[in-house]
Protein backbone atom coordinates (compact mmCIF):
# COMPACT_ATOMS: atom_id res chain seq x y z
CA UNK A 1 0.00 0.00 0.00
CA UNK A 2 2.96 2.31 0.67
CA UNK A 3 4.06 2.31 -2.96
CA UNK A 4 0.46 2.83 -4.06
CA UNK A 5 0.31 5.95 -1.89
CA UNK A 6 3.60 7.14 -3.33
CA UNK A 7 2.40 6.67 -6.91
CA UNK A 8 -0.88 8.46 -6.14
CA UNK A 9 1.07 11.31 -4.58
CA UNK A 10 3.23 11.56 -7.70
CA UNK A 11 0.17 11.58 -9.96
CA UNK A 12 -1.45 14.32 -7.91
CA UNK A 13 1.79 16.25 -8.26
CA UNK A 14 1.19 16.15 -12.02
CA UNK A 15 -2.39 17.32 -11.43
CA UNK A 16 -1.38 20.35 -9.40
CA UNK A 17 1.44 21.30 -11.74
CA UNK A 18 -0.93 21.10 -14.71
CA UNK A 19 -3.76 23.02 -13.07
CA UNK A 20 -1.29 25.62 -11.82
CA UNK A 21 -0.32 26.30 -15.44
CA UNK A 22 -3.98 26.41 -16.42
CA UNK A 23 -4.68 28.89 -13.61
CA UNK A 24 -2.50 31.40 -15.48
CA UNK A 25 -0.75 32.72 -12.41
CA UNK A 26 -3.67 31.93 -10.10
CA UNK A 27 -5.95 34.30 -11.99
CA UNK A 28 -8.58 31.61 -12.73
CA UNK A 29 -10.32 30.60 -9.51
CA UNK A 30 -11.41 27.10 -10.60
CA UNK A 31 -7.96 26.00 -11.67
CA UNK A 32 -6.43 27.71 -8.65
CA UNK A 33 -8.68 25.69 -6.34
CA UNK A 34 -7.84 22.47 -8.22
CA UNK A 35 -4.15 23.33 -7.81
CA UNK A 36 -4.54 23.64 -4.06
CA UNK A 37 -6.55 20.41 -3.84
CA UNK A 38 -3.92 18.62 -5.92
CA UNK A 39 -1.17 19.93 -3.65
CA UNK A 40 -2.95 18.78 -0.50
CA UNK A 41 -3.57 15.31 -1.94
CA UNK A 42 -0.06 15.04 -3.36
CA UNK A 43 1.64 16.00 -0.11
CA UNK A 44 -0.84 13.92 1.89
CA UNK A 45 -0.09 10.75 -0.04
CA UNK A 46 3.64 11.47 0.15
CA UNK A 47 3.31 11.85 3.93
CA UNK A 48 1.52 8.50 4.16
CA UNK A 49 4.20 6.83 2.04
CA UNK A 50 7.18 8.16 4.00
CA UNK A 51 5.67 6.86 7.24
CA UNK A 52 6.90 3.45 6.03
CA UNK A 53 9.51 4.33 3.41
CA UNK A 54 12.79 6.13 4.03
CA UNK A 55 12.67 9.75 2.91
CA UNK A 56 15.71 9.04 0.72
CA UNK A 57 13.54 6.61 -1.29
CA UNK A 58 10.08 8.19 -1.14
CA UNK A 59 10.87 11.78 -1.98
CA UNK A 60 13.01 11.16 -5.10
CA UNK A 61 10.47 8.69 -6.52
CA UNK A 62 7.58 11.09 -5.80
CA UNK A 63 9.46 13.93 -7.48
CA UNK A 64 10.44 11.73 -10.43
CA UNK A 65 6.86 10.62 -11.04
CA UNK A 66 5.79 14.25 -10.97
CA UNK A 67 8.59 15.30 -13.30
CA UNK A 68 8.03 12.59 -15.91
CA UNK A 69 4.26 12.99 -15.69
CA UNK A 70 4.51 16.75 -16.15
CA UNK A 71 6.76 16.26 -19.17
CA UNK A 72 4.16 13.96 -20.73
CA UNK A 73 1.32 16.39 -20.00
CA UNK A 74 3.35 19.23 -21.51
CA UNK A 75 4.05 17.22 -24.64
CA UNK A 76 0.53 15.90 -25.13
CA UNK A 77 -1.69 18.75 -24.01
CA UNK A 78 0.45 21.89 -24.28
CA UNK A 79 2.43 20.86 -27.39
CA UNK A 80 5.76 21.47 -25.64
CA UNK A 81 8.83 20.72 -27.72
CA UNK A 82 11.64 18.58 -26.34
CA UNK A 83 15.18 18.64 -27.68
CA UNK A 84 16.17 15.14 -28.91
CA UNK A 85 19.06 14.99 -26.43
CA UNK A 86 16.63 15.82 -23.63
CA UNK A 87 14.86 12.51 -24.32
CA UNK A 88 18.02 10.72 -23.24
CA UNK A 89 17.89 12.44 -19.86
CA UNK A 90 14.17 11.79 -19.49
CA UNK A 91 14.92 8.12 -20.12
CA UNK A 92 17.67 8.25 -17.50
CA UNK A 93 15.21 9.75 -15.05
CA UNK A 94 12.75 6.91 -15.67
CA UNK A 95 15.52 4.32 -15.29
CA UNK A 96 16.58 6.04 -12.05
CA UNK A 97 13.05 5.90 -10.61
CA UNK A 98 12.73 2.21 -11.49
CA UNK A 99 16.23 1.54 -10.17
CA UNK A 100 15.42 3.17 -6.83
CA UNK A 101 12.31 1.01 -6.51
CA UNK A 102 14.08 -2.22 -7.45
CA UNK A 103 17.08 -1.68 -5.20
CA UNK A 104 15.31 -0.11 -2.21
CA UNK A 105 14.28 -3.39 -0.63
CA UNK A 106 10.86 -1.89 0.23
TrEMBL record:
The transmembrane residues are 33-50, 57-78, 84-103
Q: Identify the SUPFAM superfamilies for this entry.
A: Multidrug resistance efflux transporter EmrE
Query: What kind of membrane protein is this, topologically?
Result: Multi-pass membrane protein
Cellular component per GO? plasma membrane
Q: What is its main location?
A: membrane
Name the Gene Ontology molecular function terms of this record.
Answer: transmembrane transporter activity
Matches recorded under Gene3D superfamilies: 1.10.3730.20
Checking InterPro entries in the record gives:
EmrE-like, Small_drug/metabolite_transptr, Small_multidrug_res
Q: What keywords would UniProt list here?
A: Cell membrane, Membrane, Transmembrane, Transmembrane helix, Transport
Q: Where in the cell is it found?
A: Cell membrane
Entries under PANTHER family matching the protein: GUANIDINIUM EXPORTER, SMR FAMILY PROTON-DEPENDENT DRUG EFFLUX TRANSPORTER SUGE
| Similarity comment: family membership | Belongs to the drug/metabolite transporter (DMT) superfamily. Small multidrug resistance (SMR) (TC 2.A.7.1) family.
Give the protein's recorded name.
Multidrug efflux SMR transporter
Species of provenance:
Weissella coleopterorum
Its taxonomic placement starts with:
Bacteria, Bacillati, Bacillota, Bacilli, Lactobacillales
